[in-house]
Amino acid sequence: MILSFDIGGTDLKYGILNEDGEILHKGKQTTPHEKEALYKAIENIFENAKNKFDIEGIGVSMPGIIDEKGYLVTAGALLNLYDTPMREDLEKITGVPVYVDNDANCATYAEQWMGYGKDYSNFIFLVIGTGIGGGLIINDQLVRGRQNAAGEFGFMQIGMDPQQNDVWNSWSFVSSVRSGLVYKYKEKTGEEINGLEIYRRKNEGDLDALACIESLYESLGRGIFNLIVSFDPEIVLIGGAISANEEFIDGINEAVSQLLLRRTDMKNYTLPVIKASKFYNDSGIIGAAFLVYSNLYEK
Question: Quick one: residue 205, left, alpha or beta (phi over 0 = left, psi -120 to 50 = alpha)?
């Protein structure tokens, strides 16, 4: 059995999975931000789990730049975990093999192992939420890059506003749900509401909501178009809570298609399928379990 953790800035989610990727049990608690408190929470969950299951390995999904030895170079909002040998530390605590990777990489693995990417050798996975991240599978292999930072698509420079600095012109700020939709609506109306409410208002005839959503599609479509022509994927999978909205996925497909139609030099170019990913809240747990599966069972 595999004990899998998905550690975020707010929630510490965990699950028990078999080697087929089936979740047998799962739970969550608030994430401690101090390293020792987090390790203690993980140890307690492990001790409880091994009383009921034969835990052969632990997988961990979490934010940040993480090398292949499970060393946390960065850790997103978990500032006290920067420069931490997490894999080494947890193996000492638990006595079982531990594997650690970036949360977007783990979500990509989940789609490759059991999701909509399993039938493809080349695909792009995007997570669109507060920011934009993802993973890239080329010839059945996850691309990690020189410093284990491949897939940080949100750093791309998409915006062209000379009044903004380069951070605010990055794809994460221009096209994320938080900055590209919620903040833009607030700029227009002075009112801060969530993405679902903006869509509801758009459908009721709110022209400001319509303008913000169309702007989001345009900027997301442009970034996805650039990724498609750069990597030639067979499919593009979209994750994040907003991906459950079919109207959102349809809007992105239309924006990308319109970009291609405007290119008279690409008449014979065909676009890949763009669709929502299979897994939502469980993608980190499943992807972290794959780290264990691929190292202990597949070899």
Answer: left
Q: State the Cα–Cα distance between residues 110 and 295, nearest whole angstrom.
A: 15
CA distance 117 to 133: 17
Coil, helix or strand at residue 100: strand
Angle (deg, nearest 10), helices 35-50 and 86-94 = 40
Q: Domain range holding 16?
A: 2-101+281-297
Token look-up 């499970």 returns 70
- The count of structural domains within the chain is 2
Query: What is residue 122's DSSP assignment?
Result: S
**In this structure, what CATH number is given to the domain that contains residue 60?**
3.30.420.40
In degrees, rounded to 5, the angle at the alpha carbon of residue 183 between the alpha carbons of residues 126 and 259 is 50
- 262 and 172 belong to one structural domain: yes
166-180 burial code (b ≥16 CB/10 A, e <16): eeebbbbbbbbbebb
Which of 230, 223, 249, 253 lies closest to 238 in space, CA to CA?
A: 249
Q: For residues 18 and 263, give the distance between their C-alpha atoms in angstroms, rounded to a whole number.
A: 48
Q: Which two tokens stand for residue 232?
A: 């030639």
Q: What is the mean pLDDT of each run of 10 residues along the chain (299 residues)?
A: 90 91 90 93 94 93 90 86 95 96 93 94 89 90 87 75 63 69 85 88 92 89 92 94 87 93 88 91 90 82
